[in-house]
Amino acid sequence: VKEKDLSVVISTLEEEFNIYKEVGGESVPIHCQDVPNGLQKNGKEAIQPTVHPVVIPKNQFCVMSLDPDTLPSIATTLIDVLFYSNSPKEDAANQGLDCIKFFSFSLIDGYISLVMDTEAQRQFPADLLFTSSSGELWRMVRIGGQPLGFDECGIVAQISQPLADSDISAYYISTFSFDHALVPEEDIVSVTDMLQHQRKDPAAS
Amino acid sequence: VKEKDLSVVISTLEEEFNIYKEVGGESVPIHCQDVPNGLQKNGKEAIQPTVHPVVIPKNQFCVMSLDPDTLPSIATTLIDVLFYSNSPKEDAANQGLDCIKFFSFSLIDGYISLVMDTEAQRQFPADLLFTSSSGELWRMVRIGGQPLGFDECGIVAQISQPLADSDISAYYISTFSFDHALVPEEDIVSVTDMLQHQRKDPAAS
């Protein structure tokens, strides 16, 4: 179908089929974000909140901290990652389409929090960054197939409540365009199953 | 009471009283995080998840983005904020105890997301950073009176589900030590009420 008709086609077929797109080798259900308002106002559709598609990249992430006194020691690497990591050459060489590059640096009342994938982590001196439970790796669930609107409500709740019910710990990081959840590496299979189930049958979740 | 006895005192009095601490002029309920395990294993207490105390600082935040091509134009300011903003002198002069300094810079697949308070925002050139709905300001709810453990589950869900039920949009930012929610400035009163109600009567939430 034509690119411009895709959303209408999906919203039509959605009634009858479960629609998936392949993301990094995993089938992820896709739902239309662009259903005209008229459709959503009719009957049962109106009370179902939009279930956002998710993307589960292959790379592994770590959540780390750093003694603020040692910040000068990583300054060069940090500046390198922040300002010089977007060259197309590096992108093509080091990461496939099934990875999401995500690097976050937060300064909160004097303490430092970092989120990065294992590839970025290797650029930093190993002895300065620490995790709380050593070596724990996290997988990302990015919520939304296209940038989320500012007025969307309950996007994180759609994921956080089922994860809490399943006793799975998670980090949530909302950014300008997307919401992200980080879940423990060992839970990613059950999280993927849960999300696929939720997207097949939103009413049951 | 002595500082070291505070948690025991709170856990004892909690049975009979609602305990508040004043945070930035607003009364925020406080619950003990250090209840000995023995207490939590008895009867009804065991099935109640810990309801984490919250802190609601007075400062206002913005969630912004930036054209990656203009990143060099803010590089000096960014380096200044990241590496030189922790001097005690500035802390004392510019922020009271009822503010939480929070600055976050994220680089995600080539796009940039920034979260900062309005004070930090004033350091940046006004024409380069943009918000999605212009001028929207957010208030922070920091979850946890002391750093949260890695193994805690459902912390964000405790807040995100009631906010979603009330149709309040929010950003969630988990860091190494705390979870944070950003809610629209105009909703902070109803969010505060909701959180206080939740903490008075966890079973009803």
SSE layout and pairing:
The structure is a homodimer of 205-residue chains.
Chain A: H1 6-13, E1 20-23, E2 26-29, H2 37-41, E3 54-55, E4 60-66, H3 71-84, H4 88-94, E5 102-108, E6 111-117, H5 118-121, E7 129-130, E8 138-143, H6 155-165, E9 171-174, E10 179-184, H7 188-200
Pfam family, one (chains A, B): CASTOR1_ACT-like
Organism (chains A, B): Champsocephalus gunnari
Domain CASTOR ACT (chains A, B): 134-196
Oligomer: homodimer
CATH homologous superfamily grouping of the largest domain in chain A: VC0802-like
Number of domains of chain A: 2
- Portion of residues in helices of chain A? 25-40%
Assign an overall shape of chain A: elongated
* Structural category of chain A: alpha+beta
Q: Tell me, what is the CATH class of the largest domain in chain A? A: Alpha Beta
| CATH architectural category of the largest domain in chain A | 2-Layer Sandwich
What is the helix/strand order of chain A?
HEEHEEHHEEHEEHEEH
Protein name (chains A, B): GATS-like protein 3
GO biological process, one term (chains A, B): negative regulation of TORC1 signaling
GO molecular function, one term (chains A, B): arginine binding
Organism (chains A, B): Champsocephalus gunnari
Can you describe what's shown?
Two copies of one chain form a homodimer. Helix content of chain A is 30%, strand content 24%. With 205 residues, chain A is α+β, with helices and mostly antiparallel strands. Chain A starts with 5 loop residues before the first helix and ends in a 5-residue tail after the last helix. Mean pLDDT of chain A is 76; it is low at 32-47. The longest helix of chain A is centred in the middle third of the chain and has 14 residues, at 71-84. The first copy, chain A, has two domains: 3-34, no CATH class; 54-204, VC0802-like. At the A-B interface, strand 4, helix 3, strand 5, strand 6 and helix 6 of A face strand 4, helix 3, strand 5, strand 6 and helix 6 of B. Strand 5 (102-108) of chain A pairs antiparallel with strand 5 (102-108) of chain B.
